[in-house]
Specification:
mainly beta; seven-stranded mixed β-sheet; four-stranded antiparallel β-sheet; globular
Length: 203
């Protein structure tokens, strides 16, 4: 399986990082080794001093497809979950300053914690899904899919031009404003609506 990530998909987050608003989804990949499952702890890596949390809704692909039209995109995912796109911001800034790719800042071991999933059938409106992240019980990020620049269908249509989607692939759909550093000892909990789907500690 592969992890496809979408960057710069919420206007307020683009503004907080002083990035340009994209005309198309910004896409990058994480390997399967980035997954952190079943509430396993995240061990702070030695190569960074500035790991940031980025809370995201995650689509689980349910069947194979490529060149998928937006109007058919809903047929290709059946569950929505909660994940974290951990970013070594110091490494990312160094790479971007040199015009280099920044996979090492996004795709390292454990950089994609993933929690539980909910069936698409449980949602009344995919364009109005609330989600939030708490750290040590304090809300740090809040988002709603209505604020996305590129909705689920647009994302699937776009990425499937370049990558064949396969059953079990994950698509991280972008993070709202409020990203920031995590510290050893922090407890991160992720919610869709009021349901907690992710719970782990930084060690």
């Amino acid at each position: 399986m592969k992890i496809i990530c979408i960057g710069r998909n919420y206007a307020a987050h683009i503004e907080e990082l002083k990035n340009e608003t994209p005309g198309n989804p910004v896409v990058f990949l994480k390997p399967d080794t980035a997954q952190l499952k079943d509430g396993a702890p995240f061990f702070y890596p030695e190569f960074s001093k500035n790991i940031h949390h980025e809370a995201e809704l995650v689509l689980k692909i349910s069947k194979q497809g490529k060149y998928i039209q937006k109007k058919f995109a809903h047929r290709y995912f059946d569950e929505i979950g909660f994940g974290i796109d951990f970013t070594a911001r110091d490494l990312q800034d160094q790479c971007k300053a040199k015009g280099l790719p920044w996979e090492i800042a996004k795709a390292f071991n454990g950089a994609a914690p993933i929690g539980g999933f909910k069936s698409v059938d449980e949602f009344e409106d995919l364009k109005n899904i609330d989600f939030h992240l708490t750290i040590n019980g304090e809300t740090r990020q809040k988002g709603n899919t209505s604020l996305m620049l590129f909705d689920f269908g647009t994302i699937i249509e776009y990425v499937s031009q370049f990558f064949m989607l396969k059953k079990g692939d994950l698509i991280y759909t972008g993070t709202p404003a409020g990203v920031g550093p995590v510290q050893i000892g922090d407890r991160l909990e992720g919610f869709i609506g009021t349901e907690k789907l992710l719970d782990f500690e930084v060690k």
